[in-house]
Amino acid sequence: MSANKETIAQWIREKKTALGIEFGSTRIKAVLVGEDHTPIASGAHDWENRLTDGIWTYTLEDIWSGIQNAYTKLAEDVKSQYGETLHTVGGIGISAMMHGYMVFDKNGELLVPFRTWRNTITGEASEKLTELFSYPIPQRWSIAHLYQAILNGEPHVPDIDYMITLEGYVHWKLTGQKVLGIGDVAGMFPVDIHNHDFDQKMVEKFDALVAEKGYPWKLRDILPKALVAGEVAGSLTAEGAKLLDVSGNLEAGIPMCPPEGDAGTGMTATNSVKVRTGNVSAGTSVFAMVVLEKELKKVHPEIDLVTTPAGDLVGMVHCNNCTSDLNAWVNLFKEFMESMGMEVDMNRLFGVLYNKALEGDKDCGGLLAYNYFSGEHITGFEEGRPLFVRRPDDKFNLANFMRTHLYTSLGALKTGLDILFREEQVKLDVLLGHGGLFKTKGVGQKIMAAAAGVPVEVMETAGEGGAWGAALLASYRVWKEDGETLDAYLENKVFGGQHGTVVEPDADDVKGFDEFMVRYHAGLPVERAAVEAMPEKA
Fewer CB near the terminus (10 Å): N or C of the chain? Predict the structure, then answer.
């Protein structure tokens, strides 16, 4: 934060602020930024999804009590730091986990409990729609949930008046507007990237598919209006203000930007919305978003197609497993050290072990591991078993052991990236890295650059993540100049040309990772045998 408290207090009074709120899987976070786009206050609320009748869900009460608590804590933070009561802000942006299924009747009543992205109950629908559209329809997409409900003959379907995502629902209740940002729209149903709207031909195909059911609605009737970043998306109503701020201090009339999914706000927060840029988030799970110059030549089940908040096509590789097994091995070393009576500094332990990996053979000396705590759709696994395997004469030492676990944490991701970069010839200037894998300076970057074969940059910013990204989209909606694109706004006014540390791919590392991947794919039957031989505990 560069501005002093007096200046920030003035920003708050003069509405030179933007508020971003994001519903993450385990935390709802609110971030207020000032005129310089840096966070000046925040508030958060922890929450957990619940498994009800076999469905992963959050209740409406969970949603509203959570956002109210996060906002209250933010307002308290503003009061505590700057002595100001928060009556208004310059703009508001809402973000949440993408996909899922929320459907309402004509009275605005929720017809079935919210089905989140986490549910894998739409396999039949996903498969049939992918075939019908010749377009990948993941299980978590809203249209897959709708069609599965139709296939199952669920009685609520004829009564649907509106189908929306979580962020779209919250925005609707705060503004009265049934709209959705194009990046989130692309997680409901395939989009036409030229018209920045739902793909009309595919809409017609779906309507024809379910015509015999005789529902009182056509698909368009129940979908939100698609908007791109910067477009007018309504403003906070008096009713919405009361919903958000239980103290009653917040005033109506605040402009709101199109609600976006966490993928879109993540791209915004990492300054990777421009064509030929991408970002990769590597922690418990890992996903990469690559902004494409043109459409892909064929359908790849491994690649999700979504868009940036500005409507540019994005190839997304999403993998369930990344650092969990790696962390488990590091914790084993921690346990050993404690058993030896040593004090353990976890940052130092990670640093020593990660840097040791860089001393290993480029191909890991013949060693092999799988980090599958859960299934991995890219390699065709519904379940997973963490596994380490080697031949007696492989080069088994600590450096190769750690390098193997770093490589395999990105094995599924590399499988998807290879489709983009090698099969589809996608070009990328830089990949922005964020998440726990990059915490040890230089190591995660070097391994990721070897996996992707492109430069990997890590920046010090984006500490507030998606909530900050939502605030930036709100600021763009309010403060952009005529004709100013989102990527130009971010580059010139938010990030100011600042750059982090860049690691270029090393040719020997790339070659070594490729050799490891030959072994990785050849060894998948070993992982399959482990799944079959060790069934999940009852």
Answer: C
